[in-house]
């Protein structure tokens, strides 16, 4: 399209206002031809894809970027393929890797907790849960729970804790705890309780929509021992409904459903909160029954009566 030329006035003097208006109305503003060549799409609206095998002008013609000959040009090669010989993973074995079933826990040590107590950032007279540890910045990310470790505990030659960094008894409710940390806390007169958490449950605990440790399977007798810090109900025990009604929580704290988690929190050695569910002489395993259950399932054994004339 040829460029449009603006019309020149017939007189060199300045036209009047009326003639200027008529000229702009009859002859609208014109555009130059080079504007059409600068048109383009909105940035990000068009993504140029690679067109392989469309001739040498495309930059990916002839061999389409595969090179000349060889197995990588003719077909696909599996990852770790060594040309047909024994793979390296078989010869040297697999080392390292990531356990996809592992729980991502935030570690916390006793010396750091004691430092926060000395600074007045944590109240040692109240139960220390994942909410107190996170809000005081003792841990920065709760992740899927908290694991208590025993840094700051001195041990003897037989790996037995002899002294602790703790100066006062504390009551901790965490996801997991090491044996050295449990021994150090209990030697100072405190207690450790391991509790099952999920990522969504921790998020609701932070928003104060869920209690940090009371659930349906929580031990009512231990809850009424002063750990909650509230008045007890009938028969000296607090139920989950009473705690939720008094404190105004919206959601109930979940309990474990997987067998691995249930067995961990049933173990008294781990100070699991489900250890009160064990029957006499029963272990934390869900596979093996207790001697009492096996005896009751077998029933009363009848005594065999031999005839009188039998010699042996």
UniProtKB/TrEMBL annotation:
Matches recorded under SUPFAM superfamilies: Ribosomal proteins L15p and L18e
GO biological process: translation
Gene3D superfamilies: 3.100.10.10
Region forming the signal peptide: none
Biased composition (Basic residues): 63-75
Keywords, ordered alphabetically: Ribonucleoprotein, Ribosomal protein
GO CC annotations on file: mitochondrial large ribosomal subunit
Region (Disordered) location: 44-83
NCBIfam families assigned to the protein according to its UniProt record, in alphabetical order: rplO_bact
Name of the protein: Large ribosomal subunit protein uL15/eL18 domain-containing protein
